[in-house]
Each structure stands twice: as C-alpha cells, then as structure tokens.
C-alpha cells in the first residue's frame, strides 16, 4: 500500500480486504483452524471459528493474526522470551502493510496447496482463543443524522 494512502473508512476497507482473501482460502479448500470466544476466561459465550495465521517473515517477534468471517482482525505480537516487552493484543481498526502482505502470501501458498500461513491446529495455543469484546473499541461512524423526527 502507498504510505500516503489513507482510506476514508479504514474498518470498511479492512473488512473488504479480509473477506476477499478468506473467500480465496475457502476456494482453495481450507477451513478455519481456531475456536474464538469473546470476553473473559473462562469462556461464557458462544464459540466462533476463526482463521489464525502466523507471519513467517517476522524473525524478532511472533506475529499472529486472527481473522473472523465478518472481516474483523485480532493481532497478537509476542516478543522474544528474553525481552521485557509485553504481549500486544488488539483489534485492528484498518489495514496495514504487514497484514496485506501476509494475506497475499497466504492465498498464493494456498493456491500451490501449501499451508497458507495457517497455524497448525496442534500448535494453536489453547483449544479456544479468548479475545476482548470487539464492540468495546469500535466507535460508530460519524456523519450527519439522516433520520427525521
């Protein structure tokens, strides 16, 4: 992506990119590899299936993206074990270059019948991923009120 490019609606752009790539992964015969629960541990709500991808290009930290079928993306960055940094876990509010590059690599790998950067199910940490409720961080789109009184 061009460094100066800023989409008008970053969340909508993120969802469009993710859903396009998930459709290509499904077409290649792949399925979600991770169970997801929103909220606190122990899981209270319904489980959702998600796509857990690991970026093989990252050498210093472990970077994983959890993609959901509605286009939302959860990013986890784990520093090396000897680093004093904490684990970063956030919902992305828009696309970034690392995610877009990883999705292109994953789809190309899936077309060649590879693993598509998906974390093998036996390596998925814990049986279920617990993520924060994504509604907490999302603000409604700003704009003029169009309803009439």
Blueprint (SSEs and pairs):
Blueprint: H1 10-27, E1 34-38, E2 48-54, E3 62-67, E4 73-78, E5 88-91, H2 97-111, E6 128-131
Parallel strand pairs: 1-6
Antiparallel strand pairs: 1-2, 2-3, 3-4, 4-5
What does this structure look like?
This protein is an alpha+beta fold and 149 residues long. The chain has helices spanning 10-27, 97-111, and strands at 34-38, 48-54, 62-67, 73-78, 88-91, 128-131. The protein has a six-stranded mixed β-sheet with strand order 5-4-3-2-1-6. Strand 2 and strand 3 (62-67) form a beta hairpin. Helix 1 runs parallel beside helix 2 (97-111). It is globular and about 35 Å long.
What features would you highlight for this structure?
149 residues; alpha+beta; six-stranded mixed sheet; 22% helix; globular
Largest beta-sheet characterization: 6 strands, mixed
| Rounded Rg | 17 Å
Q: Considering DSSP H and I runs of 4 or more, what fraction of the residues is helical?
A: 10-25%
- Overall pLDDT level: 82
Structural class: alpha+beta
State the order of secondary-structure elements, H for helix, E for strand: HEEEEEHE
User: Which regions have little confidence, pLDDT < 50, spanning 5+ residues?
Assistant: none
How much of the sequence is in beta strands?
15-25%
């Amino acid at each position: 992506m061009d460094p100066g490019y800023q989409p008008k609606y970053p969340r909508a752009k993120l969802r469009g990119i993710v859903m396009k790539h998930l459709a290509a992964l499904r077409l290649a015969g792949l399925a979600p590899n991770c169970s997801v629960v929103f909220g606190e541990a122990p899981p209270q709500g319904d489980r959702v299936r998600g796509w857990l991808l690991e970026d093989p290009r990252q050498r210093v930290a472990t970077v994983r993206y959890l993609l959901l079928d509605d286009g939302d993306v959860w990013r986890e960055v784990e520093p090396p074990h000897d680093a004093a940094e904490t684990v970063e876990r956030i919902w992305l509010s828009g696309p970034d270059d690392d995610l877009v590059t990883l999705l292109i690599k994953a789809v190309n790998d899936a077309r060649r019948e590879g693993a598509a950067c998906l974390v093998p199910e036996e390596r998925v940490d814990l049986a279920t991923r617990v993520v924060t409720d994504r509604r907490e961080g999302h603000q409604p789109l700003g704009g003029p009120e169009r309803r009439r009184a």
